[in-house]
Task: inverse folding
């Protein structure tokens, strides 16, 4: 009985581990030199990107850091542009991103919602500025933050909001999420002027305070947390229950006038008009005319990035004069008049207060670094994973070290580097324990693996996991037994195995008195749920 969830947990970690290994392998491989080699490698790379896309867009649960994903896409694009005959028409490199889910009605886009070509270096930005600006006697660029959220298009008729649509495939159609859009308070349902026709594009996002509150609530209920604010925003906007959307505190910034019953010479003018109509427009827009000026603005945004109350993942650089955009047009993937400069993942230095060994649901022992708290990508970070003994040895990370932590695709950030110059005297290399910190049984490596396991059969740490997993939504869906309640019930001797849950009602009075599962109301609710 206590084996419940064991298989599931193993499958899950196997998939994640395999994907991580494939990503690392693909990133390490040099570009193929011959067509044969390219043809041989294309299927695996394509398949890996599809798996990552599915996890990211459909499950809102990313399996790789964004920076790694971007690099994989670039590898695929490079390969396909060198040997175009190898590219499949449905290649993920050509998709604008985000397939359609079946939950919402699909509606056609009157104006395509293209994504932007990503660039990663100053040289690429300057090359873009030279190429695009070189065709204009008086080039004028607009630089703005790239909000890390979910792109939507809003349609207004006679000043009233009539429809909200997600990007979907970007070209032809998206999902009709109007009901949910109406619950986002930052989106005006009626405009300050009764404009006859208006279509505006913007980003729905979850501000850091809303994200922290949401994950705290989910943790309290013992439910799965969102990995980052972007996934929380995407998951929320695709909720079938609009009342949940209202509670979660999504916000919105407009960034592009798609269509209106009046015209403008400059994009920046159009944005000012949107602001006058009642939209929150992406703050702090810079105007630049040279590559150097653009990079100044890009660097300024990057400096501000860590102190903003919402996530940004880059800066957008666009031609400001709308007539010039028309002239340049677009490829079938990207407009030629804009690029997105992507920042590297957020990193910050902090100090390791302690390293503890955690016993997982499967008995796996994982080292966890306890950190001096630091704010990173919308979350107050106090713990970071150190994966396993190998990882610790490779970094030579010790208690007392100052380290760089980085937010990747996972909910728990990783320690990526030790600043050795800041190491205090008297530190020692860290070794994972020989005995399980929860039950005292021997720990051992399984086969050739790098992971250490507790060998104890009745390990209480594993029981907490078994129990809270058993009660979770994925399994029996008993609300009220998160990890906290589960460990309290075990610690106070109410439960020694999962089977004990079903005789728990016999101890109702003691439970209420003891308080392990809350007051009388919560106890009765819990017992009712179990039955
Ligand atoms: Zn143990």
Result:
């Amino acid at each position: 009985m206590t084996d419940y969830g064991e298989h599931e947990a193993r499958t899950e970690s196997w998939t994640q581990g395999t994907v991580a290994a494939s990503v690392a392998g693909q990133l390490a491989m040099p570009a193929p030199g011959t067509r044969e080699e390219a043809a041989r490698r294309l299927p695996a790379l394509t398949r890996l990107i599809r798996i990552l896309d599915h996890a990211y867009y459909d499950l809102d649960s990313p399996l790789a850091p964004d920076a790694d994903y971007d690099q994989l896409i670039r590898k695929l694009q490079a390969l396909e542009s060198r040997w175009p005959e190898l590219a499949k028409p449905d290649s993920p490199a050509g998709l604008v991103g985000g397939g359609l889910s079946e939950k919402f009605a699909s509606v056609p886009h009157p104006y395509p919602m293209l994504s932007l070509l990503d660039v990663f270096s100053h040289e690429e930005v300057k090359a873009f500025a030279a190429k695009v600006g070189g065709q204009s006697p008086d080039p004028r660029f607009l630089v703005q933050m790239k909000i890390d959220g979910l792109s939507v298009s809003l349609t207004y008729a006679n000043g009233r909001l009539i429809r909200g649509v997600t990007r979907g495939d970007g070209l032809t159609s998206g999902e009709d999420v109007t009901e949910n859009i109406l619950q986002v308070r930052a989106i005006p349902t009626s405009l300050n002027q009764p404009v006859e026709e208006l279509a505006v594009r913007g980003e729905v996002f979850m501000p850091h305070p809303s994200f922290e509150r949401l994950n705290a609530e989910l943790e309290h209920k013992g439910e799965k947390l969102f990995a980052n604010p972007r996934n929380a925003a995407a998951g929320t906007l695709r909720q079938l229950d609009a009342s949940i959307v209202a509670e979660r505190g999504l916000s919105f910034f407009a960034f592009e006038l798609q269509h209106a019953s009046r015209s403008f010479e400059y994009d920046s003018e159009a944005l000012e008009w949107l602001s006058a109509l009642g939209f929150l427009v992406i703050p702090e827009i810079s105007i630049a005319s040279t590559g150097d000026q653009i990079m100044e603005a890009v660097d300024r945004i990057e400096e501000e990035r860590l102190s903003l109350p919402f996530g940004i993942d880059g800066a957008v650089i666009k031609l400001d004069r709308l007539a010039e955009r028309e002239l340049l047009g677009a490829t079938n993937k990207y407009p030629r008049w804009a690029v997105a400069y992507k920042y590297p993942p957020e990193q910050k230095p902090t100090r390791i207060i302690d390293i503890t060994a955690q016993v997982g649901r499967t008995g796996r022992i994982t080292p966890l670094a306890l950190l001096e708290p630091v704010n990173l990508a919308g979350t107050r970070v106090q713990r970071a994973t150190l994966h396993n003994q190998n990882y610790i040895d490779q970094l030579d990370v010790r208690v007392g070290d100052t380290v760089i932590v980085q937010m990747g695709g996972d909910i728990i950030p990783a320690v990526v580097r030790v600043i050795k110059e800041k190491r205090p005297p008297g530190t020692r290399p860290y070794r994972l324990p020989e005995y399980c910190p929860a039950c005292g049984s021997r720990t051992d490596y399984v086969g050739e693996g790098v992971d250490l396991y507790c060998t104890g059969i009745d390990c209480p740490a594993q029981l907490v996991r078994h129990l809270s997993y058993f009660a979770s939504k994925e399994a029996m869906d008993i609300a009220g037994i998160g990890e906290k309640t589960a460990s309290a019930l075990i610690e106070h001797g109410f439960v020694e195995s999962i089977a004990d849950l079903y005789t728990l009602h016999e101890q109702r009075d003691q439970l209420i008195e003891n308080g392990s599962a809350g007051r009388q109301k919560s106890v009765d609710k819990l017992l009712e749920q179990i039955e």
Summary: The pocket of zinc ion is lined by residues 359, 436, 438-439, 441, 454, 456, 459, 461 (CB under 6 Å).
